[in-house]
Design a protein that fits this description.
Helices cover 28% and strands 35% of the residues. By secondary structure, it is α+β, with helices and mostly antiparallel strands.
Length: 185
C-alpha cells in the first residue's frame, strides 16, 4: 500500500511541476512569438534612408611640433552604414582615405600618443547639427580625454596653425512611414 501512495504522490508532484513550468513559460513564449511576428513584419525598405549615402571631404591640417611645420592633406570619407531601429538612429562610418583610420597621430613618445580626430561623420553628411572640431585626445595606454590647443602647446609643444575641412553637405532623409496606419484616398 505504501508503494501505491508513493506513486500517487509522485504523480501529483509531477502534475504540479508541469503546471508550474507551463504557468511560468507562457509569458516568455508569448513574448518570443510576438518578437518573431514583429521581425517578420520589418521591412528594411521603410528605413529612413539618406538621399546621399557616401561623401568625401577634403581636409588640411597644418601644425608645428618641435619647431617643425607639418602639413597633412587628405580626404575624410563618410559612408552610411544602416539604420538602428532600436535607438531610432542612422549609423555612419568615417575614416581617413589614405590610412583607413579615424584620425591622425600627430605626436608620440614612450608613453603618450596625441591624435587629431575628425569627429562624427553624421555632421559632414548633413545628419547632425553638432559641429565637430579637431578633437585632440591624449592617450597614455587609454584615452584620457580631450585637451585644448593651449594644453597641447604647453604640454607637447604642438601648435595647430590651421585646420580646414570641407563644409557638410545638405542631405535629405526619407522619414519612417508605418504603412499599417496609412489611409488611402
Amino acid at each position: 500500500m505504501s508503494s501505491n501512495i508513493f506513486k500517487i504522490v509522485l504523480i501529483v508532484f509531477a502534475c504540479v511541476f508541469v503546471i508550474f513550468v507551463i504557468y511560468i513559460s507562457i509569458p516568455f513564449t508569448a513574448l518570443f512569438v510576438h518578437g518573431v511576428i514583429e521581425g517578420l513584419k520589418y521591412d528594411s525598405a521603410q528605413e529612413p534612408k539618406p538621399q546621399v549615402t557616401y561623401g568625401e571631404f577634403s581636409l588640411e591640417l597644418t601644425y608645428t611640433v618641435n619647431d617643425k611645420t607639418i602639413n597633412i592633406k587628405d580626404v575624410y570619407v563618410c559612408e552610411y552604414s544602416g539604420y538602428d531601429e532600436s535607438i531610432n538612429l542612422r549609423r555612419w562610418n568615417g575614416y581617413i582615405k589614405s590610412s583607413q583610420e579615424v584620425g591622425f597621430l600627430i605626436f608620440c613618445d614612450k608613453s603618450t600618443k596625441v591624435f587629431c580626430k575628425l569627429g562624427d561623420p553624421s555632421y559632414y553628411m548633413g545628419d547632425s547639427q553638432q559641429e565637430p572640431h579637431p578633437i585632440i585626445i591624449e592617450d597614455k595606454g587609454m584615452v584620457s580625454g580631450v585637451i585644448t590647443e593651449d594644453e597641447l602647446l604647453k604640454n607637447y609643444e604642438i601648435k595647430i596653425i590651421s585646420w580646414n575641412v570641407m563644409p557638410p553637405i545638405e542631405n535629405s532623409f526619407e522619414e519612417f512611414r508605418n504603412t499599417e496606419n496609412t489611409v488611402d484616398g
